[in-house]
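User: Okay, second chain of the day. Same drill as before: sequence in, structure tokens out.
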Amino acid sequence: MPRAARSRARRVAALLALALAAPLAACTTSTGDAGAEPGPLPDGLGVSVQQGRLDVPQGRLVLHFENTGDPLTVTSLVVHSPALEPGMERDDPFELGRDDAIDIRLDLPGSICDGDPADIGVDVAATTEDGTALAGTLQPDDPFDTMARIADTDCLAESVAGVATIALPERLRTTGSGADRRAWIDVRVEPVASGDGTLRIDGVSATTLIGNEDGQDWPLSIEVGAGDEPVEVALAVRPARCDAHALADDKRGTILPFTVATGDGRSGRLELASGPELKADLYAYYAERCELGPAG
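Assistant: Same drill. Structure tokens below.
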């Protein structure tokens, strides 16, 4: 069965499950009518999609629920979009009082690159305080174009992976010591064995923690195609600034943003996170070169 058809079939199954779940929830109360169909969701219940800066590298979507009406309990929900693989579900109930709001975080599934990220719905089953079952679909607001950004990021990564692997090293290469210590991140670009895709890497942007020894960003001009030989490039690293607070509070300083474009027309920033050993090495190097004492 094609992937789009599977997605539609799973959505239908999820909707049926939600419709069944709400009456069952009502059966557990003495005031609910077990034989009644679920009522519609109240107008005061709304949802928007967001992502905090820490949610991006962890691959999570934030559903921000707001309720301006009577208190209710959301018993289950399913997120569906033609731009997302199925699997975004939650059956752990949460309460929403009047004028209440809550952020629900869900792990993102894979993206479907020929789907429309603006088409998204959240199927919700809920109960009121007196046990009345409710069910329906909410159309989320997307004030920051979160869904389009997720699709662009995932599909760019997919296009890049179809041409080559861009790999950060396990460890930081260094020489010297103290304030005279110097370091390099040895990046390896390894094209796939066969195909007709192409990849251009224009550069790497500085982060809040590190930058180019000879400037701020790392300008590059790398072009590879499937079947080409691997390319290695050394990024000379210096602290972006010597600030103990920047090191102690770092969240994204070891995630390197590559500016890339692929032959299929996709372009943008591809963020690669340092592994645990490289991250620890970068922290230690920052602290030693800035003479801040041991990192961490």
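The domain at 162-289 is CATH 2.60.40.10 (Immunoglobulin-like).

User: Thanks, on to the next one.
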